[in-house]
Fold this protein.
Amino acid sequence: MIYIIYIALGFMILGLFFASFRFIKGPTAGDRMVALDTLTTILVAGLVVLAYIFQRFIYLDVALVYAVLGFIGVIVIARYLEGAL
Amino acid sequence: MNTIVLIFVIFLGGAILTYFAGMLKGILKEILFLATVFVPLGLFYTQISTGDTFNIELAGFALKWAITPFSYLFALIVISVATMAAVFAVSAMRGTKNLGFFYANFILTIMAMMGILFSRDLVSFFIFWEIMTWSSYLMVVYRGEDVQKVGIKYFIFSAIGAYAMLMAIVIVYNLTGSMMIDTLVRAYPAFDFNMQILIPVLLLIGFGVKSALMPLHVWAPGAYSHAPMAYTSVFSGALSKMGIYGMVIVLVSLISYFPQGHWFREVIAWMGGITAVMGTLWAIKQDDAKKLLAYSSVAQLGYIIVGVGIGTPLAMMSGLFLAFMHALFKGTLFMVVGTIEKQTGTTNFTEVTGLIRKMPWTFLAALLSIIALAGIPPLGGFIGKWMLYESLMSSEHYFLVIVIFFSSTAAFLYCYKFLFGFFLGQEEKEWDYVKEAPALMVIPMLVLSFATFVFGVFPGLILNPINEAMQTLGYANTQGHLWEMSVIFNDWGNQVAMQPIIYAIIAIFLFFLIFLTLKSYKNTRYVTTKDISSSGEVPKEHENLTFSINFMQPFFRAVEPLMKRQIDKYYNGFANGMEALFDFTRRIYTGNGQTYAMYVVIFVIILLLLKNSFFG
Amino acid sequence: MKELTFNVKFSRFLLNWLFLMVVWVAFTTSFSSQELVVGLVVTMIISLLSISMFTCCTPAILCPRRIFFMIWYLFVFIGALIMSNLDVARRVLTPSLPINPGIVKIKTKLTTNFSKMVLANSITLTPGTLTVDIVDDTLYIHWIDVKTTNPEEAFKEIAEQFEKILLKIF
Amino acid sequence: MNTAYDIIGAILILIGSIFLFLGGLGIFRMPDVYNRLQAGTKATTLGGMSTILGIGFLMVEDYWGWLVKAIIIVIFIAFSNPISSHALARAMYKRKHYPLIMSKDENMDAYREVADKNQNKEETI
Amino acid sequence: MKKFLVLLILAVLGYYMYDALYGIGIGIPRFTDGVKDFYLDKTVSQLHVANTVTSIVVNFRGFDTLGEVTVLFLAVTALGSILYKKRHDVGTRSILFSSSSIVRSGSKLLFPAIVLLGAYVFIHGHLTPGGGFQGGTIIATGFLLMLLAYENFKVSHTVLSFVESFAGILFVVIGLFGFMNGGTFLQNFLPEGALNNLFSGGVIGIIYVMVGFKVATELTGLIYTILHEKD
Amino acid sequence: MDDNLLKILEIGVLSTSVLMILIGLYAVLTKRSLIKIVIGLSIIDGGIHLLLITLGYLKRGTAPIFSPGYEHAADKMVDPVPQALVLTAIVIGFAVTAVALSLIIRLYRHHHTLEIDEIKTLKW
Amino acid sequence: MVGTPVLLIAIPLLAAFVIPLVGMIWKELVRIIPGLVLAYMMVLSVTLLHYVSVHGTIVETIAGWSPPWGINLVFSPLTGLLASIMTILGFLVWMYSYRFKRNVDFEPAKKYFIFLMMLVASAVGMVITGDIFNMFVFIEIMGISAYTLTAFYTGRNSAEAAFKYLMMGGLASSLLLIAIAIIYSQLGTLNMADIASKISTMNPGYKITALVFFITAIGIEAEMFPLNGWAPDAYSEAPGPVGAAFAGITVKAGIYVIIRIVFTLFDVPGAYDFLLVIGLITLIVAETTALRQERLKRMLAYSSIGQMGLVVVAFGIGTVEGAYAALFLMLNHAIIKPLLFFSGSYLVFNSKEKRICEVNGLGKYMPFTSVLFALGAFAIVGLPPFAGFWSKLSVLTAAANEGLLLIISLILIVSVIEIVYYFRVVNRIFFLKYDKSTSVVPHRPRFNAVITMVTLAILILVIGFYPDAVTGLLHNASQDLMNTPEYIQNVLHGGQSLIR
Ligand code: NA
Ligand code: NA
C-alpha cells in the first residue's frame, strides 16, 4: 500500500514542479496566481497524504485550513488584480 | 549651624530671594541685595578663623571646607571689591531690567569665589569654579547686546579650562584615591613623570583661562567690556584673581616638588611677560574705555603671573601684592567707566571729553587709580612693580625686566589716554548736562582708590598677610630680611624713609597737572572738537577729527608686526574648520531609510568579519 | 430587498443551524456530549449572526424529491467531470496541443443567484470550459476548443445537462 | 490489499495523483492564462478530490473520522476551486488581458462587449 | 553599481550566516537539560492539554501570548490612529469592478462555514493543531471574503471594539484570577479535566477562545480599516 | 542513508532560510518602492521563522500533540518551543506589517509617491 | 504591598483593553485612566524598589512555573530602579500631555494615551522580564507604540520618520530573532539566568555570532552609531512629550537590554571594549552632528543620542564604578532631557519649522519656560550644582580608575561641543532680539505642563545639591548588574525572599 502512496507523492511532486515553474516564470501576475491556485490544491492533497503517512488524523485539520486560506488568498489577489482593492 | 555653612546658606538663599525680589519696586530689593553681600562677608571677616572646618560627604566624595591664611588673603580681595562693587551696583544698576537676575548672579559669583577659597578638596573647588563660571557668563550676556559671540567665547574658553582641570582632578582621584588638595600635594612627588607633568599642565590651562594668560586670553576683552561695569569691577578685580590663586597653588605646592619645575616656571613667567606686553599694546590701541581697561587687565594679570611664575619669595610677594592692588585700582577704574557710561551714555574717548569739572570726584578716583596702575609712587602699584623689578634682577631674569619695563612704560600711554580722553581736553556743549554721579556710586570708587593710596604708603598692611599666606605655602617668614633687601626702603610698613619726599613730589606734580589743565581752559577760545578751521584741511562731513583718534599712530607703525598676528583669528579659523568638518559628519544621516538599513547590514558584516578581534 | 417575515427568517435560521451542525460534527468527527453541546451553542450563535446572509435556499430544499435530484446531479456531474478530465489529459499530453480557445456566451433559464452559481461552477469544473462571468442570464464561457459560437448550440454542448436537473432542484 | 476500502482508496489515490500531475503539466504547457486555468486548476481539483477521498477510504476502518473529514475537504474544494478559477479569469479579463484566439472567427470573444462595464448592481446582503 | 555592491555585501553576510548556522544540528536531540522535555511531560501529566504548543503558548509562555495579543490590539489601534481622518474625509470604497455574482453567492455560502471552521479551530486549540490565533485568522479571512464580495458589507465597529475589549479584559482577568489560593499570574485555577476531552486543560481552553475572539475581531477591524481607506 | 538524507535536509532548509533572509534584505536595500521594502521585511521574517521551526525538527518526530493514540509518544515529538515562538513571531510580524502598510498609505497621501528616494525630507 | 511586579504589566494591558469600552461611556476616562494606571505603576514600582532594596531581589514566576520553565519577572535593585524611573517619567509625560488635543478629535486622543501607557508598560516589561523571548515581545509592543506615537501628527512628515523607525525596528527584531534562535538551538532554554549559567558551555563560534546579532539588534533600539539613523527623525517629528518619552524611557530600555546581554548573558570580555568603542563613536558623531543642527528638537535628539553613547561608554568601562556612573547618567538624562523637550516644545510651540533661530529673544516673553530650558541645558552639559555634574564626574572618575585617559579627554572635548550648541540656544533665547516675523508666538504653558516641568526642575536641583538622595540606589543597582552569579542564584535557585 505504501508504494502506491509513494508513487502518488511522486506524481504530486512532479505536478508541483511544473506548477512552480509556471509560478516563477509568470509571465503575468495572473499566470502566477493560476500557478499558485494549482499549487494550493496540490499541497492540500499532499497534506492529506502526509497525514496518512504520519498516521495522524489531526493533520487533516491543517489541510482543511490550508484549503480555506488558499482559496481566500486567491480571491483576494484576483480582486486586487481587478482593481477592487 | 556651622558658620561656614551659614555663609553659603545666606548667599544661596539671598540669591534666590533677590531673584524674585527683583520684580518688586522700591528699595527693598536693594537692601536685600546689599544685606546678602555684606552679612556673609561680614560673618566671614569676623567669625571665621583659619582653624574652622566643615566636612561633608556627597555622592561618595569626602568634601572639606576650611580657610587657610593663603586663601584668606584672596578672600580679602573678594571682600573689598565685592562689597564696594555691590554698593556701586545698587545705584548704577537702578532702573535696569531683570534686576533680580543681576543681583542673583552677582551674589552667586561672590558665593562661588568664596567657595573656591574655602574648598580644601577638588570636587567642591570644581563645583564652585563652575558656578563662578556660569554665573559670570550670565553676567557677560546680561545686557544682550551683540553677546552671541562674546558670551559663547567666554564660556567655551572657560569650559575648556574647566574640563582640563576636571581631567586633572579625576586623574588625581585615580592616583591618590582622594579628592583632598592636601593629599594631592603630599602625593605629588611620588607620581610618575608623565603625571607629574600632565596634572600641573591641565590645572594651569584651567587657571590660565581665568587669569587671561596668553594665548587663553581672547575671551577677556569682550567679556570684561560686555558685562555691566558694576560687575566687571568684580570680574576683573576679584574673579580673575581666582586664576592666580589656583596658579600659585599649582606652581608652589606642586611644581616645586617636580625636578624640572623651574622650566615650568620660566615658561609661565615668560607667558606672563608676553601677555603683559601684548595686553598693553592692545590697550593703547582701543578707543573705548571698556576695551582699554579690559586689555589693561590682561596686561596687569601678566605682571602678576610673571611674579608668581618666577616664584622667588620676593617675586611671589610682588605678584600677590600686585594682585591685591590690581583688584583695588581696576575695580575702581571699571566703576569709573560705569559711572561715565551711566551719566553720558557712552564710553568712547572720542566722544566724551572734559568731564573733569562736571564729575570731579569721579575724576579723583580715576586719577588715583591710574597713578596706581601706571606704577607711579607713592600708590600701591609702584611698590608692587618695584618689588617685581627687584626680584627679577636678583633672580637674573634680565630680559624679563626689559619686557616688563617696556610694557610699563607703554602703559603710560593708555593711562594718559584714559585720563585725558574722558576728563581733560575741551569741554563740549554736548555734554553740558552731565552731572556728578550719585553718592552711592562715588563713595565706593573713592574708598577703593584711597585704599590704593593707603596701601601704597603703608604696604605693610598688605605685606603682613601676604607674608603669612606665603608661609602656609611653604615659604619662610620673610619679614625682616626680605623687606630690607629693597634698596629704597630699609623697612616697609609705616616708617618709610623716602615717604615725605615722595609725598612732596606727588603733591607738586598733581597740583601742577590739575592747575595747568584747568587754567589752560580758561584762557583758550572755545572751539568744538570738530572745528578744524585752523588746519586748512578740508574734512569730509562727518569725520571726527578729535585728537584722541589715531592717538598713537607712529607708535603703532613701529609695533605693527607684533600686533598683526591676532590669536583670535587662529581660534576662529579653527572653530570654523571644525564646524565645517562636523557639517560633513552629519551627512552620514542621509535621510534615506535604505541607507540606514545598509548601515545596519554593513555593521553586522564588520562585526562578523572582525568578531575574533573584537570578542575573541 | 423586501423584509422577510419572522417565520421565513426562523425557518432559514433553523436550516442554517442544521447545516452548520452537520458541518460541526464533520469537523469534530465526534459525537461526545461535550462536543455536541458546545457545537449546538456555537452553531446557533453563528447562524443567528449570519441569518441575514444565508438566504440562498429555504427549508423546502430538504424535500425528498429535490434531494433525489441532487444526488442524480452529483452522478451526472461526476461523470461529466471524469469524461472531460480525460479529454483535458489528452490535450495536455498531445505534443501539438490541439486547442482552439475562445469565449462564447450562453443563456440560462435559472433565476436564483445560487443556482446560477452552481451551474457556473459545474461548467467550470468540467474541463474545457470555464465561466468567466455571469451577466444577468448570460454566462460567458471560455472554451478551450470552441466548436460553435452560436449561443444556443453552445448551451446544448456545455450546460444543458446540468441546467435540466438544476431547474428541478431549485 | 486487505479490504475493499483499501482498494478503492488506492485506485482513487493513484488516479488523483496522476491528475494532479497533469494539472501541473497543463499549467506548464498551455499558451495563455485562460487555457492554463482550464487545464491546470480543474485537473488538480479532480485530482485533489480523488486523492483526498482515497486517503479517507484507506483510513476509514481505523477511524471513521478520516473519511468524514476527507469529504468535508473535498466538498470545500469542489465549491471553492471553480470560484477561484472564475475569479482569476474574470480578473485577468478585466485587466484587459484578452484571451488567445487562434481561429479567425469574429465571434470568438463574446465577452468583450460587456467586459468593461461595471455591470453588477449593488446587491445588499 | 549599487545593486552589485549590495549583492557583494549580501554574499558576505550570507556566507557568515550560513557559516554560523551550519552544523547547528537539526533533527537530532540536542539538549540534555533543555526546557522542552519538561513541557512535553507537564502538558500531559499536569495540565492535561494534548497540544503541547498550546500549553506553551497559553500557559508556560502565556505571558508572551498576552503581549502578542496586545501587539495585535495595538496594531489595530495604530491603524486607526495613523490613518485617522476627520469624519467628513471618510469616503466609501472606490472599486473599479464589483465582484461577480458567482463570487458573491459562493462567499455567502461559504462564509458561515468558514466562521464555524474558525470557531472549531480555536475551541479545539488544546486538542488539535490549532488555536486562538489560527481560528481567529480564519474567521477574519471569512470576513475578508465577504468584504471582497460585497462592497457594502458593513461590520459594526462598536461590536468589534466591544468583543475585542471584552476578550482582552477576560484574558487579563483570568490571569489575575491565578493569584487565588496563593498562585501566580495566569496560573490555572480550574479543574484540568481528562486529556483529549473538549473540557480539559482548565483555563487554557478558555484563554485560547478569548484569544480567538480577540484575533478574529482585531484582524477583521484591521482589514476593514485598510479596505475602507480612500486615497 | 538516513543520516545523509538528514544532512541534505539540514543543508537545504538552512540554505533556504538564509536565502530568504538575503532575498528579503536585497529587497530592503535596493527596491525603491516602499511596498517592496515592506515585502522584503516580511520575507526576512519568513526566512527566520523557517529557521526557527527547523531548529525544533526531530528526525522521525511527530507533532507535539498528545491526541488519541499518541498519549505516550513524548520521546518522538518534535520540540514544541520553536513552534510556539514562531506562532508569536508570525503574529507580531503581521502586526508590524500592518502598521507599515498604514504608514505607507499615509506617506502616499502626503508625498503622492512610494519611491523611497523621494521621501527623505528629514535628514542631516 | 500594593502589588507584585507582574501588575506593572498586567494592569496597563487591562486598562488598554478597557479604555475603548469606557470611552464609549464617558470620553474623559480615555485620558484619565492611563493617568491613573501610570500613577499606580509609579507607586507600585517605587514601593517595590524600596522593598527590594531592603529585602533583596523579587523573582516572580508566571503561570506557576518556576524558572527556567516559566517566564519570570526579576525585580532587582537594577531593574527596579529603571522601572521606577520609567514609570515616574511616564506619569510626568502623561501629566504634561493631559490636555493634549483636548479640543480636537476624540479618536486620536484615545489612541495617544493608550500608546503612551503601553510605551511605558512595554519598557518596564523589557526591563523586568527574565526571559529573552518575552523581552522580544515587549520590544515589539514598544516598537508599535513608538511608531504610532511618532506618526501621530498627520500634518508633519511624521509618517516618514515612523517608517524609517519601523524599517530599522523591523531589521532589529529580525536580527534579535536570529540571535534567539541560535541561543535556543544551542542551549535549549530562553530564560536569561539559565542562559547565563550555561553560556560557558556554548560553542564559542555560535556564541559570538549570537552576540553580534544581539548587539546589532539592540544597538538599533539603543541608538548606537551607525544604527541610529531613525532616532533624530522620530524624536523630532513626534509630539514633544513623546520625544521626551523616547529620550527618557524607550532608549533606556534599549540600553538596559544591551547591558543585560553583555554583562549577564554572555561571558565575552571583549564586548566591554566594544561597548567602549562604539559608545565613544556614537558620542562623538552625535554631538558633532548636533552642533550643526538648525532645528531645536533635532538638536535635542542628537544630544540624546550622544548622551546614550556616553552611557554606553560608561558601561563599557566594565567596572562597578562604570556601571554606577552609567546608571547615574541614565537617571539624570531621564529627568533632564524631558525637561528640555517639554520646555523646548513650548518655545517653538507655534512654529512649523521649529528652527533654533526662531527662539530668539523669547526669554523676555516666556521667562518661565526659558529659564527651565536654560536650567535643563546647564544640567545636561554637567554644570554644577545641577544633577548632570555628578554623573559626569562619576563617569570620569570611573574612566580614570581604569586609566582611560584618552577616553576622558575625548569625553571632555565632546562636552565642550555640547556646551557650544546648548549655549548658543540659551544665548538666543535670552540675549537676542525677538523677531516678530517668525512664526513662533509666545505661548504660556498650561498648568499641567507647568507642574510637570517644575517637578523635573526640582528633581534636577535636588539631585544636584544632594546627590546622595539617589546614589545609594545607584550603588545597589550597579552592584546588582555586575553580580551575575547572584542573578543566576536568585532566579534559578531561589534567592532570598522570592515571590513565587
Ligand atoms: Na484552489
Ligand atoms: Na521583524
